[in-house]
Amino acid sequence: MASPIEQFEIHTIIPIHIGGVDLSYTNSAFWMTISVAVASVFLALGARRRALVPGRWQVMTEMAYEFIANMVRVNVGDAGRRLFPYIFTLFMFILFGNLLGLIPGAFTYTSHIIVTLGLALTVFVAVTIVGIVKHGLHFFSFFVPSGVPALMMPLMIPIEIISYLSRPVSLSIRLFANMMAGHTMMKVFAGFVVPLGAATFGIGGLAPIAMDVALTGFELLVAFLQAYVFTVLTCLYLNDALHLH
Prior knowledge:
Order of helices and strands: EEEEHHHHHHHH
Number of domains: 1
Mean pLDDT: 88
Distance between the termini: 52 Å
Strand order of the largest sheet: 1-4
Strand content: under 5%
Largest sheet: 2 strands, antiparallel
């Protein structure tokens, strides 16, 4: 029986080596490409007709657009409109990566810490740049909590800095851990189907199948929730940078 961890292995599809650097096109990059293509087709089909009475595709596209637009309005305000394309793209990339990873034989690139850390670092850098561009050196007052006695500052400032620097770590681990744990559980239960079925004339295999069906439904919810959590935290971090709360 294959190991539950085997599904997370990176495999080279097209080897590419430039200057001693491995830039090979892997199964992870392949499913990222598919995710971008599917998301693009989904949005293109929805925006194709632009009918006054929208069809199904247009409704779904408008729902996705308005969902993120409302998230930005509530958590960032009007100042966050300029970064709406980035936030919307981030949400769709994570969501479709999570959902496509549930297809048997697919690769879930959001279950790799290097991918989620890369996404989290782009958020961290973008938010920091936005804060510095808007506030200049005053941005660093974010690390000086208001109302704290001066004697406590030598303790509070390092804590605030560490908390700020830990954002990409917590953001990436949350997404990676949830996706990896869910897919591992599904693989573990799937591995019991044949042995239990063979030992009980097929009857025993029904229990792990039922569990996998339930887990699939649960993972569909987790796929959306993790994309939502990643995106809403991005909005909250952006709000901090813009308003120094």
